[in-house]
Specification:
With 206 residues, the chain is of the alpha/beta class. 52% of the residues lie in helices and 12% in strands. It contains 7 helices and 6 strands; from the N terminus they run βαβααααβααβββ. The strands form 2 sheets. Strands 1-2-4-3 form a 4-stranded parallel β-sheet, covered by helices on one side. A two-stranded antiparallel ribbon has the order 5-6. Strand 5 and strand 6 form a beta hairpin. Helix 2 (44-56) runs antiparallel to helix 3 (60-82), helix 2 packs antiparallel against helix 5 (112-137) and helix 4 runs antiparallel to helix 5 (112-137).
Length: 206
């Protein structure tokens, strides 16, 4: 069973040095069956809110400029962590996440709260993907968990302020096979969850 939970906010993973510090902390406790809950890097959530606002105001040029800032920011962290040694498959994974994000940004006909949740969640998904790759590079056995499959909203109508369905959430978590998570670090996202049907992302209320 997981005995300790470590939460790292955006400032704790804001750059390559911060991620290295996280890895050093994790290395000291990796035999304790810990769960890492990690936020989007730095001010990424605010940056994505700006991107979304520009797209919804039908200013594609400003939207793309703002999105490019997000991509450049994360590329800088990746380069700082891996240099020219980044795994090509990892690079493809990150590129794929940004492509998915761009596709979600096109759907400006969707209600704002709904589109917000479908786009802003990528801050956490990208952050934890980068950290997962770096922990693997540091030879720290880590399993990446998609919080949207485990933290289930009780009412999918409340986008941007979802509350967990605790019964369903506990059930989903209980199905994690202890044999598959014992002795390794589990890494997941803060702030986000999903609907029971697995079709939609949600951000969690206060």
């Amino acid at each position: 069973m997981i005995r300790k939970i470590y939460k790292f906010g955006g400032a704790s993973v804001k750059d390559a040095d911060a991620v290295r510090n996280l890895a050093q902390i994790v290395a000291q406790h990796k035999d304790e069956d810990i769960l890492l809950v990690v936020s989007a890097m730095g001010k990424t959530t605010n940056m994505l809110e700006k991107v979304l606002a520009n797209f919804r105001e039908h200013d594609g040029n400003l939207g793309m400029e703002a999105l490019h800032e997000v991509i450049t920011y994360h590329d800088g962290i990746i380069n700082g962590l891996f240099g020219e040694d980044a795994n090509p498959e990892f690079g493809e994974n990150i590129a794929g996440l940004f492509i998915e994000l761009w596709e979600k940004l096109q759907k400006t006909e969707d209600p704002y709260d709904y589109q917000y949740d479908q786009t802003v969640c990528y801050g956490e998904l990208i952050s934890t993907s980068i950290i997962h790759e770096y922990l693997s590079k540091c030879e720290i056995p880590t399993r990446w968990l998609d919080a949207r499959k485990y933290v289930i909203a009780e009412d999918e109508a409340h986008f941007r302020a979802a509350n967990p369905d605790w019964d369903e959430t506990r059930l989903r978590i209980s199905k994690l096979n202890d044999e598959h998570i014992r002795g390794i670090v589990c890494l997941t996202q803060g702030f986000i969850g999903g609907t029971a049907d697995g079709k939609h992302s949600v951000t969690l209320g206060a």
